[in-house]
Amino acid sequence: MQTPLSWQGFGQWAFLIAAFCFLMLTGWRWERRRNAQEGSARAELGAFIVSGAWALVVAGTGYATLVAQVFESFRTFAWLSLAFVLFSRDGRHTSVAPIRPVMAALIFVETLQFILLMLNVRYGGNAAAQAMIFQISMLFRLLVATGALVLVHNLYAGAMAQQRVALRWSCIAMATVWGYDLNLYTIAYLARTLPVELEAMRGVAQIGVALLLAIGAVRGRSALRFSPSRAVAFQSLSLLVIGAYMILMVGAAQSLTWLGGDAGQLAQLGFVFVTSVLVLAILPSGRLRGWMKVMLAKHFFQHRYDYRSEWLRFTRTIGRGGTHAPSLHERVVQAVADITDSSAGLLLCQGENGEMVLSARWQWPTADVPAEALSIDRVDFFEKRGFIVDLDELRAGVNHQGEDAAVPQWLVEEHSAWALVPLLHFDRLVGLVVLGRPQVARKLDWEDFDLLRVVGMQLASYLAEHAGQSALLEASRFEEFNRRMAFVMHDIKNLASQLSLLSRNAEKHAENPAFRADMLITLRNSADKLNALLARLSRYGGNAAERVEDIDASEVIRAVANRYNAPGQLQVHVTHDAPCRVLANREVLEQVVLHLVQNAIDASAEGMAVFLQCNVDGLYGTIEVIDTGCGMSAEFIRNRLFRPFVSTKQGGFGIGAYEAREMVRAMRGKLEVESREGLGSRFTVRLPLAAAQGLISSIEGESTPHGKKVA
């Protein structure tokens, strides 16, 4: 008799500590309820309060009392309410049909406990009736624990991989509550009595539940979004696993009862402890869930994929709109990654010279992608073969169609990269999707290749349509711009003609010689200015390269600096102005530098200086415009800086940077840019040296045989 008394005392202290833990957790959560969603905060607080009250009642009165049984039912209702709230936060309780009926059935079965309690009071003196009521009560609690575990499993397994962190600790806590109940009531049903030892250890389990919830609350929560797939089959497999577990439990418990005495009790405790640890350690594993999905696809379905569900998800991903929706390029990567359960991906698209460059990242910020992700000579392989590359096979030395020569080395060394999917549109490579390794890496089979190939063609058409629309919009805006310029030039020509006629008439008819001379000077200056403006507006034909001459670039930067520097106010600093003779059109070069300096001033804080310098670099002369302003991101430089009609300035036309680059190119030069956000920018105009013109021409002639241009 000494052992039950010691276990009973231990259980009282354990439940008392559990009640204190839930009380502290309730107070802590109450202080932070405003940071959580309203429904989930109320459900959590309700579960904490009722669990603490139940633990306090059990510590004071014992488990078998009427009030303890009532509070346990209330505790069950509270935890079921929390599970239902977590399901309903994205509407999954309405989209997945079994959720609501299962929840209603569990509440109904738990409600029957109140009827059993009244019957127990009514037939308190009848031992046979009480034994039968006890067995029925244990059976009902077994049903509730089993159904609740199924709900918890599907709540966690149905969440997207990147959102499971928000559910992890709550699901582990609920799995602990009902997992221990499942073990306890199975043994109680078979032994026809509640083991005192397991009942006492139940308080320790409740302490663990409170600690798990505290860890989850400290680590925080993110917004929950769910994406169920093939739910019915997976839930059926979950029920099968839980059923097998129950059969194992029943057989093991029945075998343990044969031992009898203290040995049987210790064996029961050890079995419950080991199985609980295994369940908590293995079931939440992403690798195990992935393995179960693969086995399910292999043995329960003729095909791996549910093509209807995949197509619906694909369409929803690509068609997602709104101001906060990702860009089309990011959605393209996600649409491919969702098919193979990849957690990250990259999209490579064609650059200006035909090479493949990074266009978008999806959940892969650490991938180190070079500026030229895939050289132009490797593009031909993917265009001709449309081959989907399994990078794990490539690393293992398998070479099916010569893909080892087409895949760049940085992809081979990036071990997180798993597969390479080409996006072909009419035998033209529009893009390449690099898929990150899923949690359960597997060998791609024929069904993967077929589906990825079809999806790649569909996505390529979307990208080609998007590029075509962008080009059409750009062409229409160019047409509008040219039409406006034509009107402007026509008006200016008329004005210039009128001023010229006025000047000629003034020469013939003005009577006052002084007035006539002054008027003539004014009119002629105006005519000269208008003609100069006409000359600048007529440069869009690309004739600047025909009018280059030997000029000193240092004189250009000094002239630009003088235009901005007022007396007593030095805004543009010339840090190096050694003579640098280059081949350029002075007027065009001055216009380019003026534009770059004005942009640098606009990007800098008031009072911050802009620096100009001129240097000789090999066969070229350089003019550098440096500022310490807000800077630009690599994505902005790559996709928006030199794109016409895209401007960050209010009311800007967005053609300045594009025009500056084209002017420099027309003079056989280059416009380069380096920038870091928050640090500033450096624009470099690189032009051929006048003294090196012959050498540059000979080098370019040797590098372009038969007149073919090399990108």
From TrEMBL:
Entry keyword annotation includes Coiled coil: no
A Pfam family of this chain: HATPase_c
GO molecular function: ATP binding; protein histidine kinase activity
Annotated keywords: ATP-binding, Kinase, Membrane, Nucleotide-binding, Phosphoprotein, Transferase, Transmembrane, Transmembrane helix, Two-component regulatory system
Catalysed reaction equations from the record: ATP + protein L-histidine = ADP + protein N-phospho-L-histidine
Transmembrane portions of the chain: 12-31, 43-64, 70-87, 99-119, 131-157, 169-191, 203-220, 232-253, 265-283
Protein name: histidine kinase
